[in-house]
Design brief:
The chain has about 450 residues and is α/β, with parallel strands linked by helices. The protein contains 15 helices and 16 strands. The strands form four sheets. Strands 1, 2, 3, 4, 8 and 9 form a six-stranded mixed beta sheet that branches. The chain has a five-stranded mixed beta sheet with strand order 12-11-10-15-16, sandwiched between helices. Strands 6-5-7 form a three-stranded antiparallel beta sheet, with helices on both faces. A hairpin with an 8-residue loop joins strand 13 and strand 14. Helix 4 packs across helix 5 and helix 6 crosses helix 15. The mean pLDDT is about 95.
Length: about 450
């Protein structure tokens, strides 16, 4: 059976066509499985995965990961002897496992953000293949249980660019990781489609006349724009390359809004902007690295031994009453994800409220951050400008203005974004839809044309 598979930065979704209409499959309590994973230890993942693989793929995986599996099995025996958990968790279960014991186990959110990162060595690439594989196995198994038959072919969504301006090498690396994971998970045939094009295919089903559409897809990790000629004249065509007028994309997404709001609204409570006894400010990159949960290099720096020593040295030079011990506590207990999660919750609340109070008891008893719309606006300003540049670039490539703008993705409901787009391209109709499901639905439509 064939499906559309949105392996998203924030959520995974899968859809099938039924009587000409896409249906999103329920992957738990909802059609969306958050893209998070929790393991008892990073080195245990390979040993847990080998037990879940389809029998036809197991020998290949054993060949690829033999030494890692041996280390994992020894580690798992130790975990069991100590009465510690020995399982992989995905989605909300992974988040809860992390929140219960932040400094225990291995937690990763939005692994798709890392797939195109430059400088990854072979061990890191193997780890990301395993993380993606674990999530694909989970989604595929849940889908097959619902459908009652194997899922062997898929059209998988991909951003225009995985890593912003890093070029085709980043895209090649990310697609290789996704392809290898999909093959090991049991997919016999896989095709990739730009996510904004997929969302456009779903929007096209609503059009009664041919139209030029600018699709703006703002996901958790990337923003992608496509200028597409769409409508009844083109719906049944498999090759739509002639109607794809322009594409642009960069690694700017909902996660970046969360991180910038963390820095703007929470990091001052941890000592940012303080002056040392020498009159010098505390280094701002420390606070950015602490919050940058979608940046491998930044997190490696922050949690490395050098930063630990640097923080202890700075503590000796701090003014009385310094808030820097809270940043040290964040580092010691691996609380970066938790603090950014608080900012994300605040960001969502600010869509309907003037301010949002978020507890930070994990850093200091009774501590809370009051996040405001003004802080969010300041945090969002440079990101919105970059999104505007991506819109302009897709329009420039097309050589024509759009008739309609279709906005989708997890950040599409943001009032800030809606107002920004109206001001950027005044006088053009702006449409929305299923912000989280449009990509998966469009992928299913393309899968039906490709494999049906």
């Amino acid at each position: 059976m064939h499906v559309g598979f949105d392996y998203g930065t924030s959520n995974c979704a899968m859809a099938v066509m039924e009587q000409g209409t896409p249906r999103l499959l329920t992957l738990g309590d909802a059609p969306y499985l958050p893209s998070t994973l929790h393991a008892p230890h990073r080195d245990a993942i390979a040993g847990l995965l080998v037990e879940q693989l389809p029998s036809s793929r197991r020998n290949r995986y054993l060949t690829l990961r033999g030494p890692q599996i041996q280390r994992a099995q020894a580690l798992r025996r130790t975990l069991r002897e100590e009465g510690l958990p020995d399982q992989l968790s995905m989605g909300e279960a992974a988040l809860q496992a992390y929140l219960e014991e932040p400094d225990e186990g291995y937690y990763i959110k939005s692994p798709k953000s890392f797939l195109g990162a430059s400088g990854l060595n072979s061990a890191q690439i193997a780890l990301f293949e395993d993380i993606v594989l674990a999530m694909m196995l989970q989604v595929k198994a849940r889908a097959e249980a619902l459908l009652g038959q194997p899922v062997t072919r898929a059209v998988i969504g991909r951003p225009v660019n995985f890593q912003g301006l890093s070029g085709e090498e980043s895209n090649r690396q990310a697609l290789a990781i996704l392809s290898e994971a999909a093959s090991l998970a049991g997919f016999d045939e896989v095709a990739f489609l730009f996510e904004p094009v997929a969302a456009g295919f779903e929007f096209e089903a609503r059009l009664n006349a041919d139209s030029t559409v600018l699709v703006v897809d703002i996901g958790g990790g990337t923003t992608d724009c496509s200028m597409l000629r769409m409508g009844p004249s083109y719906r049944q065509q498999l090759d739509r390359s002639a109607q794809m007028l322009g594409h642009s994309g960069q690694r700017i997404g909902g996660n970046d809004f969360d991180i910038r709001l963390t820095v703007e609204g929470i990091m001052p409570l941890l000592g940012m902007h303080e002056l040392l006894k020498t009159g010098k400010p505390l280094p701002h990159p420390l606070f950015w690295d602490a919050a940058a949960i979608n940046d491998v290099a930044a997190q490696s720096r922050f949690y490395g031994l050098t930063t630990g020593r640097q923080l202890q040295d700075m503590l000796l030079d701090c003014q009385p009453g310094s808030l820097l011990p809270r940043l040290i506590r964040l580092r010691e207990h691996k609380l970066s994800h938790q603090v950014v999660w608080r900012a994300e919750r605040g960001k969502i609340a600010l869509s309907s409220e003037a301010q949002s109070q978020q507890p930070l008891d994990e850093l200091d008893a009774g501590l809370h951050a009051v996040l405001t719309r003004n802080q969010l606006a300041l945090a969002a300003e440079p990101l919105l400008e970059k999104i505007g540049e991506l819109m302009d670039e897709a329009i420039r490539q097309a050589g024509t203005r759009p008739d309609t703008i279709f906005v989708t993705g997890g950040s599409a409901k943001s009032p800030l974004l809606a107002e920004f787009i109206r001001q950027r391209l005044p006088g053009i109709q702006v449409a929305g839809g299923d912000d989280l499901g449009s990509v998966a639905a469009g992928l299913a439509r393309h899968a039906e044309r490709l494999f049906g």
